[in-house]
Amino acid sequence: MRIDLHCHSTASDGTDTPAELVRGAAAAGLDVVALTDHDTTRGHAEAIAALPEGLTLVTGAELSCRIDGISMHMLAYLFDPEEPALLAERELVRDDRVPRARGMVAKLNELGVPVTWEQVARIAGDGSVGRPHVATALVELGVVPTVSDAFTPDWLGDGGRVWIAKHETDPFEAIRLVKAAGGVTVFAHPAASKRGRTVPESVIAELAAAGLDGVEVDHMDHDPDTRARLRALAGDLGLLVTGSSDYHGSRKTCALGEYTTDPEVYGEITRRATGAFPVPGTGGPEARRA
Fold first, then answer.
1. CA distance 131 to 140
2. Do residues 260 and 2 make contact, with C-beta atoms less than 8 angstroms apart?
3. Which one of 27, 115, 178, 287 has the fewest CB atoms closer than 10 angstroms to its CB?
4. How many CA atoms within 13 Å lie on the side-chain side of 26?
5. Distance from C-alpha of 92 to C-alpha of 126, rounded to nearest angstrom
6. Ramachandran region of residue 191, left (φ > 0), alpha (ψ -120 to 50) or beta?
7. pTM, entire model
8. In which band, very low, low, confident or very high, does the pLDDT at 96 lie, cut at 50, 70 and 90?
């Protein structure tokens, strides 16, 4: 089995629609794919409707968290999307995204960069607006060559010239909320240092003690030495080890299935989840129409 447990669609900051994403996953030879848009489950219904036969969808989200001033992301799988407390927290995070993005546009204008809110809104479309959409605007204007080059102290990186804080969930609270909604939690790309500061291993140990299920080890932002170190840490802490592409369509260079999760780990994730179940593709009307 080939299993990719971290992908994004146009419901947040990916460039593929949810339907395009699942069709692309099937074409890439995946057996299981997770849709984990930032702080939203809005793309799940479209993905399920277009799910090809032979492909299983894991529903989830990537939750924006912060601890001790350090941004981190928590992958949440197979939770009940209507559980009130977790739903309210996701909405709180999403609602803060628009004023934050408008503020970043204003800061860019102060620096002489002619980006407009209309441009950013067009790029975001129906998705939850975020820094990648502002970064894409900078690429369109020729200010930076790639989206990744915008995530530096000069521009949108944490604490950078254009960075503005937004509401982010305490990761211990995120674990509690996801567990209460029947879900499973995995710390996304915990050592992706080129994105900014990363949490120390002591905090990962505290999160594990609080109920964290796993860590995303095999990821494009982790070099081989980092992956080996994280795999050893996970073993010491009794955490599951996952791998995934963090696919964003054309917004990033990674391909679907570039890194994958061991089937036994996937089986354990599904065993622990009680809020929702993986959805097997039946090749229904929407899928056949593609």
1. 14
2. yes
3. 27
4. 20
5. 18
6. alpha
7. 0.87
8. confident
